[in-house]
Amino acid sequence: MWRQCEDKWIERGGTFVLIGRQREQAALCGAIEERRSLLVCGPPGSGKTALLEEALSSMTENRRRRCIVCAADGTPAMLWRSLAQALAAAGDPEVLTRVERERGSHVQSENWICSQTSLRIRGILRRAARGCDYSIFLDAAGPLADGTYRLLQEWVWSGRTPVVLLGCGASQHEIGKAARLYWHQGLRLHLGPLELDSAQTLLELEIERFGLTRLANGEFRKLVLEQSLRLPGRIVRLCEMASNAAYQYKGRVKLHTLAVDFLMDPQRPVSRAARHA
Fold this sequence. Notes:
Elements: E1 2-5, E2 8-11, H1 22-33, E3 38-41, H2 48-57, H3 61-65, E4 67-71, H4 76-89, H5 93-103, H6 109-115, H7 118-131, E5 135-139, H8 146-158, E6 163-167, H9 172-175, E7 188-190, H10 196-209, H11 218-227, H12 232-242, E8 248-249, E9 252-253, H13 255-264, H14 272-275
Parallel strand pairs: 3-6, 3-7, 4-5, 5-6
Antiparallel strand pairs: 1-2, 8-9
């Protein structure tokens, strides 16, 4: 059951808790609906992946099947194969027809895709994009390789296949040459820190969800808001860590140990279980 809290939406006992990102969610959904390419950028923990998951979950099944989502890490060849496998999973006729013609069954699509050259896979991707109205979503942890940029350039500039890229920033240092494709603010959606009231709302919800109500005093709340920089993924992770008995002593959270361990590895992704409680 959804309940409204000012400009925030909270789902108690349901899926992911998305708080304080309604404007950004509306902007992303609008870009997807209008088939516009967009760069969703922000530091690790700002909620880029969660925002995309929330936007996709609001679509109809038919529309969602035309949304091809892949991680953009690794070599261009790895990305081509991941995209081709995602197309096969979506029932793309270009991919499945070729698999059935050469293997006799589309069940073996993954093995067939892995056996193809990068050149052939790129050709298949181009033909598939021309044949169906796909939207491509790429989650990039770092700069994209030049080979990846060239295919994205073709898609974005064609105006037919929009590419939504999730990146840590908008500069060439952060996302490679792909920065040239999203060169003005109208092509960028930046996720920064949550407003203080939204961050506090999320923190209180996570304290309750991770069973920290008796442990979370004022000092703990202050530490989480400061160390997280009010980024939602970091707030969730700090609460997730604090729920571990290793960070508890005599009914209190060991704040110094928690802060040090968090600072040693602030970019470790929050577990899927923590994001979908």
